[in-house]
Amino acid sequence: MKNIYFVLLLLFISPLFTNSALAQCDDVNLVNLTNPGPYDVETLTEADGIRNGPDYSGATIYYPTNAKRPFASIAIVPGFYSFPSSVEEWGPFYASHGIVTIIIGTNNLWDSPEARANALLDALETIKQENSRASSPLEGALNLDQLAVSGWSMGGGGAQRAAVLDNSIAGVVALCPWLPNSQLDHESPVLIFSGEDDTVAPPSQHADLHYNATPSMTDKVLFEIANGDHSVANTPNGGGGSVGRIALSWLKLYVEDNDCYCPLLTDNLLVNPPAASKVEQSFECGLLGIDNQELAIGFYPNPTRNIVYLEILKDVNYELISPLGQPILEGNLTGNNKQIDLSQFPESLYYLNIEGQIIKLIKYN
């Protein structure tokens, strides 16, 4: 009898959960892409106990103090003969939006892009160690599957090369990158900023070639800032603030896996932007659960104690989502015996996302 009451209760409140799941995007809008963001920011240096990486020289970690954990992280390196101060505004900006940021210096000011790539990977190692350092305020607070890299000029070239060297990197933001003879065969979603009037790394000799050298299957954007010089993307305020808004949305979408930022890019920030002299893009994303008419799906039993059987004519990918909108299981449905086992999960209402269609499933014990 208890299970019957539980199922009836879920059937009654399931529309409320549906609204809650979709309402997670309510606060994701252009107005909230501010500089600074909503969270307070503190810093950590080697004086506070963070690791001194051998492949870089000096580091500052910027982190939010009142944001929801776990945090994504990004490592940033400056360009040729430049100090961390040249890109330091990115630290408090990202951290104030909930992304932990480590900004590093180089062992030599004239380090090559390849050396800067290794420096970025070393900085990510420092981030990983902060997650387990007992006296760190970031102990256990980081999602180590959500790591990104960025850099300016030679550092931007190094960021792209870091993604080639480490395929676990979840996202790249290249700021007016300088990298000749680029070999960029990687799968990390990459956002490239360039300046139309950049004479140090002219887009036709660097950023444009980088975009074309990145595989067509890799999600990528090239945003050329009108009248921009070599340092136009050194701060989030570049391009009238477009640089910060686009970079933040890119990291939220691909590094934090927050689909709510997809329409900000596809419908707003990258559509005829006044700050851009050129935009090229090749990426696909979609907002959770809009169209339920494209694919015929049968499923039973529902409610269920464990197995849900699905009748779908073609092979598909699926994602199971908690009532709070958090992905908890994903996989492939193939062949003639398509099923999903919910036995490992507690009784509750779940959402099954199949090619943008949302199916409500009730699990009971």
Task: Explain how this protein is built.
Residues 300-357 form the Secretion system C-terminal sorting domain. With 365 residues, the protein is an alpha/beta fold. The chain has 2 domains: 2-24 and 288-363, Immunoglobulins (Immunoglobulin-like, Sandwich), CATH 2.60.40; 30-282, Rossmann fold. It has helices spanning 2-23, 90-96, 113-130, 154-165, 207-213, 242-254, 262-269; strands at 41-44, 59-64, 71-77, 99-104, 142-152, 171-175, 190-195, 220-225, 276-282, 298-300, 307-311, 316-321, 327-333, 338-341, 348-354, 357-363. The strands form 3 sheets. A 9-stranded mixed β-sheet has the order 1-2-4-3-5-6-7-8-9, with helices on both faces. A 4-stranded antiparallel β-sheet has the order 13-12-15-16. A 3-stranded antiparallel β-sheet has the order 10-11-14, with no helix packed on it. The chain is globular, with a radius of gyration of 22 Å. Residues 4-22 and 288-293 have low confidence and may be disordered.
